[in-house]
Description:
Low-confidence stretches: none
Order of helices and strands: EEEEHEHEEHHEHEEEEEHEHEEEE
Structural class: alpha+beta
Radius of gyration: 20 Å
Mean pLDDT: 93
Distance between the termini: 16 Å
Helix content: 10-25%
CATH architecture of the largest domain: 2-Layer Sandwich
Strand content: 35-45%
Number of domains: 2
Amino acid sequence: MARLVQTLPEGDDWLYEVKLDGYRALLSKRGVDVRLRSRNDRNLSAAYPHVVAAGRKLRADAVLLDGEIVAVDRNGVPSFQALQYRSAYPDHTIAYYAFDVLHLNGESLLRLPLSDRRRRLPSIVAASGLLISETLSGTAVEVTAAVRALGLEGVIAKRRTSRYESGLRTGAWCKIKLDRQQEFVIGGYRPGPSGVDALVVGYHEKDGLKFAAKVRAGFTPHLRREVFDRVKRLHAARCPFVDLPTTGPAHWGGGVTAEQMAEMQWVRPTIVAQIRFVEWTADGHLRHSAFVGLRDDKRARDVRREG
């Protein structure tokens, strides 16, 4: 897993890739049996049959790939909302970008350097219909500027000699986000005409679920109804946030005052949403937050503040 940084490491020891805005997924093939698993071990195979069909064409009897499922437009630009709400984005195509290979024909590659693992990808993926997340040439500054100019989410830097360390953020892989967004846990909502007027979201710390924002922007009436259909099953009597109500004025609509607490419908904090925002405020809330989509591939208990 990649560690969030403010600037990317420089030097020949590092390679750079575009940070793709989608679902991280392992793709396993044994003979004709191909499966997709999310980071929280959810089976995604039925949801992406074209990716599974392409996986059967991989040039290996048995292989385990790490990669990202994304929805791309005609220019190859990924959209997380298009991945979430495919029927509303008919001009987007689902693709799987492989960026690592972990096992090949019975041999574990986990302890090999990343550069050796990546060297095997082209011959495995060739003509399958799956894609490879290509490395980007240039310095960290040049790569960051180019990716920013394209309006993409961010850049991943990976140490060429790094082994594959499952589930760890050791710093061997780093990420910089140019479009600030992360996952947050939904702990409540303010009801509205289309079901949800605003989501109340937060993140976990040692002492419990911390409030981050009231999120009103980024919704269409259809999305409000869809989110409402998910959260209405989780109604709860008590507020799950340990630091609500907030005190003082609610700058940028970020707080929930004691008076506003009665307007909220609280829910069990089990659903994760992707939220875009401008910055963290001094009091630890999000400024100008907007809803991007729901994340079924992330566990609520794993959500922490990233920056």
